[in-house]
Amino acid sequence: MKRYSDMEYLRLSKWNKFVYKLVSFLVSIPLGIGHFFVKIWKGIKEFGGKVVAECKDIWTTFVTGDWKTKLSFLVMGFGNLAHGQILRGVMFLLFEVVFIFYMVTTGGYWLSKLDNLGDKGPESVYNAVLDTNTTVFNDNSFKILLYGVLTIFFIIAFIYTWRANVKQNKLINQILKSGKKLKSGKDDLKSLVDDQFHKTLLALPMVGILVFTVMPIVFMVLVAFTNYDGSHNGYSNALFTWVGLKNFGTMFSWTANTSAGLQSYSATFGEILTWTLIWAFFATFTNYFLGMCVAMMINKKGIHLKKMWRTILVMTVAIPQFISLMYVSKMFAQNGLLNQMLMNHGWIKQPLPFWTDATWARITVIIINIWVGIPYLMLITTGILMNIPADLYESAKIDGANAWQQYRKITLPYMLFITGPYLLTSFTGNMNNFNVIYLLTGGAPTNAAASGAAGSVGYTDLLITWLFKITTGGESLYYLASVVGIMVFVVVALISLVVYNVLPSIKNEEDFQ
């Protein structure tokens, strides 16, 4: 693709400029994906280099260190205790004691069961006291996988802490050789509320992120490689075990019962993904531009009762979506208020198929989402519009620019520059917008061709609502839902990384400063 200079670009016609921008964006997508994988490869190489460097540093510290340093490789914190740093030494030693106790008592057991997720499932055993058969629950695959992951994280934390202990001994030797004084426990406590206060504040949030965000993600990814479902829940009926890439093979299989009019999992996934992207595009940009137009109309000079109009729109945001969307869903039903009113006035003879026809349903949910999203966008854009310098509009008027030219050359570029990151997060958020779809249609109307796939797939189902359906009901195919969750993450991550790198507010940060 030919790259134009700034002067060459300015000489292009409007149509050629549009085509050039469109082609540039389409070309940037595979390039962005390529750069993403290149960065991953570079990251792997850098990580490998750092691991080698760390190993060399550990060996050098052991060889050149004194006996206290060498002993601290086995007894964490010994070097600190021997040099009078009681607080640091006790913390290191206490962590090691807790780790060893955990691994001996329970951690080793969970790791030993992790290879097959349990050996013995529930069984019926005769109880002589009750004179009947009772169910004895043995291994629990769910707990084995969960606590196995927790144990692996604990081991990683121990390795990191042990490495910090080695670094502390190296630092102690360097400080003593330089003739400086080591920090005492009192100095460490002062440091935690002074120059190291940021670490004190971030310690608890970081632990929370690891326990409540990172660990569940790892657990979900691992479930995709098991047969965990309603009939293999790992405890009360049967154990689940590892199945490798079988679930991914099922998801990406093109085999289907075509004679019965059923489509494959791959076709179903592709159809739902396509609709999800279409929905996210319209749900994002219709709300964005219409919300901006509403804000501009309210801000326009000569409009009276501006506070009242803003208050009315804010009130729609305050109403819970569960109430408003459920009401609108009933209003657009076959026997709902809207169809009844149109039929009573003789405007239609048959009820309009808002929720029974695929095209009607998809268009309807997009239109209703506009009503849901405009007030929120109006609030966001109002503040930004007020910050655009009035001198720009005055200069444009002097130059003879009309209202549309002022919007296209001043308002829109400024808004896109400021709200670019928000548009990206809004797009990804709409891809996972569970409330609007589930409360309005529940995914309906049903897609008969996709009935061979898990869950009752509908034409308005997004990937997130399909994932919910897969995990509910009698089958409860958690393993397949995990595969879908991974694919949602991959799609959202690729789109976010590609678009983020081409945003004007990221590439040209100083344009509007």
What order do the helices and strands come in, and which of them pair?
Layout: H1 6-11, H2 14-64, H3 67-72, H4 78-82, H5 86-113, E1 123-127, E2 132-136, H6 141-177, H7 185-192, H8 197-223, H9 246-251, H10 265-299, H11 306-318, H12 321-331, H13 337-344, H14 358-386, H15 390-398, H16 403-431, H17 434-440, H18 463-471, H19 478-502, H20 504-507
Antiparallel strand pairs: 1-2
Helix pairs in contact: 2-19, 5-6, 6-8, 8-19, 10-14, 10-16, 11-14, 12-17, 16-19, 18-19
How would you describe the overall organization of this protein?
This protein is mostly helical and 513 residues long. The protein folds into two domains: 167 residues, no CATH class; 250 residues, MetI-like fold (Orthogonal Bundle), CATH 1.10.3720.10. Helix content is 69%, strand content 2%. It contains 20 helices and two strands. It has a two-stranded antiparallel ribbon. Helix 5 runs antiparallel to helix 6 and helix 10 runs antiparallel to helix 16. The longest helix is centred in the first third of the chain and has 51 residues. The chain is globular. The two termini are 32 Å apart. The model has no long low-confidence stretch (mean pLDDT 86).
Keywords:
513 residues, mainly alpha, MetI-like fold, two-stranded antiparallel ribbon, 69% helix, 2% strand
